[in-house]
Specification:
heterotrimer; A mainly alpha (310); B mainly alpha (288); C alpha/beta (402); A: two-stranded antiparallel sheet; 2 strands; globular; C: 402 residues; alpha/beta; Rossmann fold; 3-stranded parallel β-sheet
Chain lengths: 310, 288, 402
Amino acid sequence: MSSTEIQGFVFAALALLVAGALPYFGSDYVLSLGISIAMFTVLATSWALFSGPTHYISLATAAFFGLGTYTTGLGFESLPIWSLIILAGVLGAVLAALVGLATLRLSGVYFVIFTLGLAELIRQVITWGQNMTGQKGLYVLTDLTEAHLYQMLVALAALVFLVGWLIGRSRLGFALRIIGDDETVAAHSGINTAQAKVLLFMVSGAVAAMTGAILAPRYIYIEPSLAFTPLLSFQVVIMALLGGVHRLWGPIVGVIPFTLILETISANFPNQVTLFIGIVFLVIVYFIPRGFAGLIETVRNWSAWREARS
Amino acid sequence: MDIIIIGLLLGGTYALIAMGLNLQYGVARIMNLANGEMLVAGGFTAFWFYTAGNISPLLTIFVVAPVAFAANWLIYRIMLEPLVRRAKSRGQLEVDSILATFGMSFIAVGLMLAFFGGDYFNYSYLSVPVIIMGETYAQNRVVAFASAVVICAILYAWITFSRPGLSLRALAVAPDSARLVGINVRSRAAIAFALGGAITAVGGALISSFLTLDASTGVVFTLKALIIVIMGGVGDVRGTIIAALLLGVVETLVASLIDPGLTLAAAYALFILILLFRPQGLFGRKPT
Amino acid sequence: MMMKRRSALKLGAAAAASLAAPRLALAAETVKIGAVAPKTGPLAGGAVVTQWPNVALWANLVNAAGGLKVDGGQKMVEIIEYDDQTNPGETIKAVQRLATQDNADFIIAPYGTGFNIAAAPLFDRYKYPHLAVSAITDQVEDLASKFNGMFFLLGSTTAFVQGVVDVLKGMQADGTLTGNKVAMVNVADAFGIELAAAAKPLFTAAGFDIVYDSSYPLGTQDLSPVVKAAKAAQPNAFVAWSYPPDTFGLTEQAVIEDLQVEAYYTAVATCFPAFGGRFGAAAEGILGAGGINPDSEKFKAYAKAHMEVTGNAPDGWASATTYASLEVLQQSIETVGLDREAVTEHIRATTFDTVMGDMNFNANNFNEKFWTVGQWQDGVYQGVAETGRQGAKPVRVKQGWA
């Protein structure tokens, strides 16, 4: 382990500690913001694990997330929450494996729309199934507090970062970077591109499902249109891209400002939220095209260059 | 039989919705997620003209089309061209345009909310039965379908036989080579984008005569259009029309014979199946 | 005189209400009232008809009269509005923000069943009385026992279905409904599913034969297959547990298909003024969810003020109940002050005089008197079935679509 890596670890551990302790010093309001941030950090980081190196933009996040919420929603009365989270992870991974295998031949925008269609298909089928059985939305009434949910999310985030770091160091990570650069080259150099892609997609699917499982008690009342909302998939993509997907820590620097800006807007301009989100969006696209991670690196390189000159 | 006709009527509507997006995405390479908002804006205009001045949506489209054309041309020139210029690769442009137009769709929804409010809007135009082969259909749908046929036919003929149409096709197939044979890629792309926007807005004006819209419904139409365009094959007018009609018929078949609850599920299942067996869409060319 | 003063103050108050963003808080002299409901997203179309105008109207009238009477003086009302974008996560965040950042004195219940349930634990934690209007469920007992301050004003699922069953039964007894065949469809969303599930056994028990039963997804663009299939089943009555866009869509198709039934019912939005405006003479005789007594003096005054302040007419169902919930809140505050738990207790123990008539809550915090079915009669949406409200009109048979 190099010294910069040790530095990184210490920094990450400290950040984790501070984040995990939030419920003890922040107000309830800060905590509810913290939940949003933790949720999107987990989702965006795991999304970027797959989409960053492969350039496959997945809009299936809502499908996995919804799967997770329904796992908790259906099982919370008979099973403890931790087992449901694990179960959701397994189900998410299985679904991701199926989707991954089915979509190996797709690339670019075809993959994008396929994943979106898949999420909608699942939502429609569940809605229809509910109608058949006469069952309405699910009530998830548990004793878990926001602080519990928040800490579970932070723990999951830590896990995601650890997995991401391990993948980055592994053969799999190396293979993925080559696939991202040129899939043909990767295939010719003996990399099992299909296996690598599907594995990573499974990781991100499992994590999204686990996030859904954790958050179900917060929604209290779940139904397909809430659990499978396509907006979630878009938000995750946008936050991840805003942060930057080429660094493990990229998405988080997108998630935090985005959540805070959104919060400020909806607190101050409740009648123009949509309009303002749109404007912020365009500002990001036109003026921060490489994401905040890119911006930070540019600044860092620039100051290093200045130091070198002086 | 009447199931097929209803399906075709619905499919004609879908063709209108998707045709605009196909031009924007297939030719101008802009994956326009604000497409649905353009449709709703067209619908709003028709609604406004009809309720304020009792002007038929069929006449309104002659106002809507040029205005939408100009607006979309400006949007492309001012907002999207910098992205095209900046993009190093097709993938980069795709991501940028998704983000930019997603932002624009929010702005459009916000503006429409500010001007028109979030209320549902709906009016009654030609909401009378018309009898075709012993079955009754809504006249406004038949009229919208007929208009869709006319617009698609004109567009198809223009793209297939005219010189500017030819250059648009060249642009869809091989943007880099198009430049080599002396096609002004940027101005053509702007025209394709503007034309796409105009068609979408006209579609919205026609659709508003029989669907209930509100300021935030645009995204529903964007999704439908995306699915159709991808299903038919990007950049192919025939593909879009056939995919739209197919989707309309399948949805109606499922709704009538199996269960209306599975209509949308069937639409997505069809879409996913087609992609699984023909990843490039019905009429798409295999990516090289 | 009263009206004059109102309109004179209207401009100022309206401007204050629209500008009353939290950062421009007027001073400690105001009572802060939070409001969370969709201004965007799928439910916005309903909320801008039913919820938001009444919030604005109430604040306007209270302030025009000099404010809320508390602590021996009067305090102006300041409304803090948030758009939840039809997203329960946003609802939760906004309620949290109102409670802890804006220090709202009271919070008006959100819009929609799921949203009220999602917000209930927060209302409970901060001891806000939760006067849920746009929330119809059969879980009232459960929820009220869990969330002490949650009240239900608009009715329950079963009561709504029972209202429709009773109306049809009554028409059979009068001889205006000449058969027992019912075609039933529902929108495949929590609301429609719950109503349809409750309806099946009730219709069967009442001797009706459900000859067509199916659902369609929210957002279905072409409802003609649904209406065609329902027509083919040759029902005597057509019942749709529908949402606003499909209420319009189904009715339009029914007109086109010339669906010959003696009773035609669509649920939400049938009572919207826009519905009557859209279908004109064809709306005559259409049954819908909820109702009002448009002839009561109180309602007339309310409708007039609603028109003057918001520029639109109220709907024929939840508008007035939403306003009544604010009257309940106002009367409680003026009696016991700004102590939230005292207000909750007062609401539970008191009978209020509201625009809907007198209103009180049973052991389950449930308002037992409400309208279940209404009908368009001579261009006016009239209540025709209720559970203890005055002024129900006799039901008419649906006679064609001309």
